[in-house]
């Protein structure tokens, strides 16, 4: 787990299971976190109320999010990103916030990058500039093709959600 901004941390599945005291956590992975939190096997029907995300109590937001080679679809990813920004905003003033995915290299750091760009802690001019700034802070950042294409294409829209 690495702190990338005041009270904002990026981590892996290992960090998720440590149950860090006082943390609010975004679990940016379908397997195992979203599946276990919602209680399903295989794939969840898109009509299910927790298909995209599931809020458990006040401190855990579980995302049905996977790395894909193709661009992330905005009808699914926009609501996820918007909820993540709201979740971080709600907690960051008085709690540490952990955003984790399986390996901590693509989805979770991309969420942290977007948050930091919105707060002007790194460049918000373009995704490429934000990515360069963020990579200096979080060297492990290796976004998948899908999330990278999504952030690049919808960058300006994402800054205003």
UniProtKB/TrEMBL annotation:
InterPro entries linked to this entry: Dual-sp_phosphatase_cat-dom, Prot-tyrosine_phosphatase-like, Tyr_Pase_AS
PROSITE patterns xrefs: TYR_PHOSPHATASE_1
UniProt cross-references to Pfam families, sorted A to Z: DSPc
Boundaries of every Dual specificity phosphatase catalytic domain copy: 56-122
Protein name in UniProt: Dual specificity protein phosphatase family protein
């Amino acid at each position: 787990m690495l702190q990338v901004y005041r009270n904002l941390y990026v981590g892996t599945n290992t960090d998720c299971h440590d149950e860090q005291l006082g943390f609010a956590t975004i679990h940016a992975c379908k397997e195992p976190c979203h599946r276990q939190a919602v209680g399903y096997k295989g794939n969840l029907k898109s009509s299910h109320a927790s298909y995209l995300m599931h809020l458990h109590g006040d401190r855990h937001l579980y995302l049905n999010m996977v790395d894909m080679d193709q661009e992330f679809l905005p009808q699914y990813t926009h609501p996820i990103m918007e909820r993540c920004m709201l979740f971080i905003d709600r907690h960051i003033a008085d709690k540490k916030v952990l955003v984790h995915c399986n390996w901590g290299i693509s989805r979770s750091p991309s969420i942290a990058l977007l948050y930091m760009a919105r707060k002007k802690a790194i460049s918000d001019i373009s995704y490429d500039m934000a990515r360069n700034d963020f990579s200096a802070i979080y060297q492990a950042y290796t976004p998948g093709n899908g999330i990278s294409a999504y952030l690049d294409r919808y960058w300006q829209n994402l800054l205003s959600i």
